[in-house]
Amino acid sequence: MSGIERSKRLAAFAAVDENLLAKHRVIGIGSGSTVPYVVERIFSRGEENKDRVFIPSGFQSKELVVSAGMNLGDVDQYPIIDVTFDGADEVDANLNCIKGGGACHLREKVLAEAAKIFILVADYRKNVEFLGTNFSQGVPIEVVPFAYAKVLQNLRGVVGSPTASLRMAVKKAGPVVSDNANFIIDAPFDREVMKDPYTIMAKIKMITGVVEVGLFCHMAKAAYFGNEDGTVTIKRRGGGVETLQPEVATPQ
Ligand SMILES: O=C(CO)[C@H](O)[C@H](O)COP(=O)(O)O
């Protein structure tokens, strides 16, 4: 297992250990490459899971839940979630984050908003002071296909992202299509703009045709970052930061 994978796994294990309580029944599962470790740790709770239902944020996390043999549910059955675990593309000092690198941020935000507790898990590269530091491809924006060209024009001309672009698929001709059959625009903004993510999020959200913006502001209770040295840094709502040496067996 590579150092990065080890860091992701450390973060996920520590986050589950601290935040998944025996009384929790409805669990939101986000998307990305860190979330499988969340599911791995939850799965290890065994019998405790038989009274739980897991709400996935998309195709990938649904497959994770199904292949672990855990109970699958949907947010329309369970609009109140006890705790949601999810990855992030970057998390700032105030626990605001960029999400949507995997084009899942609409459903992820629904699961985050439905949750009493929203927890982020990531490797050390995602732990930044200001958003956009390492994740420079821009803010992911899910848009209705009919409106994409107009939204691009609004972003480039009015909102201040001259290089905003439609995300293109890699092993398919044409654009990335989300689990909701929408397109994704990536919109980079200046560093100063990204220092106030709530303001730019609200501006983008007002554009007609935008379905959801991959900026999650004031939502997370805590973010767990696995570090290269085997420790986990925890940033908590309110500004607390601590580093712990987890007692979980560190995978090699
Ligand atoms: O927002 C997401 C998908 O839309 C992911 O949570 C985000 O991209 C982080 O993924 P990873 O854990 O692979 O770094």
UniProtKB/TrEMBL annotation:
InterPro entries, sorted: NagB/RpiA_transferase-like (IPR037171), Ribose5P_isomerase_type_A (IPR004788)
Database matches in SUPFAM superfamilies: D-ribose-5-phosphate isomerase (RpiA), lid domain, NagB/RpiA/CoA transferase-like
The entry's keywords: Isomerase
Enzyme class, broadest EC rank: isomerase
Pfam families on file: Rib_5-P_isom_A (PF06026)
Pathway as given in its UniProt record: Carbohydrate degradation; pentose phosphate pathway; D-ribose 5-phosphate from D-ribulose 5-phosphate (non-oxidative stage): step 1/1
One CC-aspect GO term: cytoplasm
One GO term (biological process): D-ribose metabolic process
A molecular function (GO) term: ribose-5-phosphate isomerase activity
Enzyme nomenclature, EC number: 5.3.1.6
Recorded catalytic activity of this chain's protein: aldehydo-D-ribose 5-phosphate = D-ribulose 5-phosphate
Record PANTHER family: RIBOSE-5-PHOSPHATE ISOMERASE
Family: Belongs to the ribose 5-phosphate isomerase family.
Name listed for the protein in its UniProt record: Ribose-5-phosphate isomerase
Native organism: Athelia psychrophila
